[in-house]
């Protein structure tokens, strides 16, 4: 182990670099999202800019969460390159400090960031995203719809027949839908009517619609301030259809998995999300090891640009491999534990192997 002073110094350099990269990307995402919201809602006269700024601020953390591994990678590369450029690593090695000793503080920083991201940042980001969806539904309505947004679909049965539900937004784990459309059919499968509503809230045995407009064949459309549509869907079934795993806070995932399985539904996506979050600290350590394998070359030896480019490419390959394996896990081809943990473990082992080839102790 290295001394406390040197360890804290290295840890501080890595923390500043990682936070600098993450905050830079965070501000960039926020700015782009705010500009896009202003463009999409330009014809909504009663929505002030402060509401759009708040909406973007609530949406940005969940988007920025996806770039946390790259913030670790680029922050670690920046810190190591600066240490190498200023010959601080040369002095440390001359004092008998091996690469494994001065990489211990960065690894601990990566683990700390991973634990914080899973236990604090993820629940806060999920809550803010749900609040953003609520604000978007209440203040913007259908004016905020973007053609590229995801639509939610589900089929239900009830005492009145069948219905297909389409919603543009969902909040409260699918219990509240925004800009929802019901296509109702009788028990023989014949089309009855189409109901469009600003929102739909799931109650015990029925959907409560607000500002609904009913269109029936060969009849004039009818408008209702409140309307009820019967349903046999439960909260767990609706959550399965309308709530994405990324929108569920980390601390609620185990209970959600248990309730979903007891309801007889497939909980693979939620179990995979839970295991992926648990594996985040190991994935962050893998990013630090990848950064070290391409950033420890002395500047006077040259070839630093090629190694940095190689590190960026390795990070993207690891990210793509992680997404691919998670897709296999969500499809049931791989177990959720293997799909969630294998990219992080394999990445850490490959980074360690690269350092073993490059370093001598």
Structure, explained:
This protein is an alpha+beta fold and 361 residues long. The protein has 2 domains: 4-141 and 268-358, no CATH class; 152-243, no CATH class. It contains 12 helices and 6 strands. Strands 1-2-3-4-5-6 form a 6-stranded antiparallel β-sheet. Strand 5 (206-215) and strand 6 (222-230) form a beta hairpin. The radius of gyration is 25 Å and the shape is elongated. The model is unreliable at 142-148 (pLDDT under 50).
Overall pLDDT level: 83
Overall geometry comes to elongated
Could you give the order of strands across the largest sheet? 1-2-3-4-5-6
Structural class: alpha+beta
Task: Compose a concise summary of this entry.
By secondary structure, the protein is an alpha+beta fold.
List keywords for this structure.
361 residues; alpha+beta; 12 helices; 16% strand
Give the arrangement of secondary structure elements:
Layout: H1 4-40, H2 49-64, H3 68-85, H4 88-94, H5 99-102, H6 104-140, E1 152-158, E2 161-171, E3 176-185, E4 191-202, E5 206-215, E6 222-230, H7 235-242, H8 253-262, H9 268-278, H10 280-295, H11 304-330, H12 336-358
Antiparallel strand pairs: 1-2, 2-3, 3-4, 4-5, 5-6
């Amino acid at each position: 182990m290295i001394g406390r002073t040197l360890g804290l110094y290295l840890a501080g350099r890595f923390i500043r670099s990682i936070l600098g990269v993450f905050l830079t990307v965070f501000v960039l995402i926020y700015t782009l999202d705010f500009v896009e919201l202003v463009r999409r809602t330009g014809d909504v006269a009663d929505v002030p800019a402060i509401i759009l700024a708040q909406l973007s601020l609530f949406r940005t953390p969940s988007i920025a969460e996806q770039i946390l591994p790259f913030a670790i990678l680029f922050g670690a590369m920046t810190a190591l390159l600066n240490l190498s450029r200023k010959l601080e690593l040369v002095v440390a090695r001359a004092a008998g400090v091996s690469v494994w000793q001065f990489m211990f503080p960065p690894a601990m920083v990566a683990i700390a960031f991973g634990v914080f991201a899973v236990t604090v940042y993820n629940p806060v980001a999920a809550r803010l995203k749900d609040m953003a969806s609520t604000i978007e539904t209440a203040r913007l309505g259908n004016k905020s719809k973007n053609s590229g947004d995801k639509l939610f679909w589900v089929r239900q049965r009830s005492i009145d027949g069948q219905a297909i539900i389409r919603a543009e937004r969902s909040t409260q784990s699918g219990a509240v839908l925004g800009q929802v459309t019901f296509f109702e059919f009788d028990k023989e499968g014949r089309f009855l009517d189409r109901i469009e509503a600003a929102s739909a809230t799931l109650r015990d045995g029925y959907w409560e619609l607000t500002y609904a407009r009913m269109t029936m064949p060969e009849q004039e459309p009818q408008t209702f301030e409140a309307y009820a549509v019967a349903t046999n869907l439960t909260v767990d079934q609706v959550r399965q259809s309308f709530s994405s795993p990324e929108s569920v806070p980390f601390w609620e995932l185990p209970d959600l998995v248990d309730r979903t399985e007891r309801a007889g539904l497939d909980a693979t996506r939620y179990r995979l999300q839970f295991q992926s979050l648990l594996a985040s600290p190991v994935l962050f350590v893998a990013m630090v090891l990848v950064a070290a394998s391409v950033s420890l070359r002395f500047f006077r030896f040259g070839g630093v640009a090629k190694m940095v480019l190689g590190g960026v490419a390795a990070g993207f390959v690891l990210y793509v491999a992680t997404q691919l394996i998670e897709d296999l896990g969500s499809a049931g081809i791989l177990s959720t534990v293997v799909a969630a943990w294998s990219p992080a473990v394999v990445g850490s082992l490959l980074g360690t192997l690269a350092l073993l080839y490059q370093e001598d102790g």
